[in-house]
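Quick start: what a row looks like.
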Amino acid sequence: MGLCDGRTVIITGAARGLGRAYALAFGAAGANVVVNDIGTSLNGEGRDTSAADAVVAEIKAAGGNALANYEDITDWDGAKRIVDAAVAEFGDLHVVVNNAGIVRDRMFVSATLEEWDATMHVHLRGHFCLSRHAVDYWRGKQKAGTNPDARIINTSSGAGLQGSIAQAAYSTAKGGIASLTLVQAAELARYGITANALAPSARTRMTEQAFAEKMATEGESFDVMDPANIAPTVVWLGSGESAHVTGCVFELEGGKIMLEDGWREGPVVDAGARWDPADVGAAVDALLDKRVAPRKVWGTA
């Protein structure tokens, strides 16, 4: 028996890197896997369906069930067709893994509007469109008297949680995804839907370019940056065993699973009356002395 026997999962950006690792792992765990990928370049250009086909062939060769899908997740109607295809092929839908993304690295002083919009479009609109149609399907099931026992698994990033030099757009989008996850978890629990997010650190087309030295672990006894290391936690989050876990952001790297603590109220000072602007500086300095040291922005010394 596999951990996800009989469950159907849609994985976006599933032809390469982390998405491919997730697809293979879900297939090995008994899930029906919809491998969604339009086959773009790292910056979102071009189309190639062969990569998704190859992952499907690999899952089937190992005895699993899979379906290739080439719809654009940022297209509202196309995202619905992904959900419809999953249900038509496998009879149900249980998990959406929003993994697809692009990157347009640029220092903020050189960033362009086109790069900014393209990054927001794929990450934020892409997460929204597919999840929204999946939620419509699951709400329909609940209204009909069936508990959907459903999962949304979003993809944030260390860049979204603490910022990253030369990745203003990417960091902003990934930070937005973390916040979206909190709202989804709070609103969708009543329908039997959980929502969690990942901040994975692994060797992909994106990270090999930006963090080449850190990603070079292939020759070591334990390849810490192998994308397959991230997949077991994602499979568990997609399983029936994770129904009690929602609204969480997990940082994952190698054998590490770290639960993010989120924004919390820190030190406070209360004058009990309106502040004089001349007194604010000393109050802020006192607060800074008491705070827990923040994590550094990626790429800073």
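That is the whole record. The longest helix spans residues 113-143. Residues 8-259 form a domain with the Rossmann fold fold (CATH 3.40.50.720).
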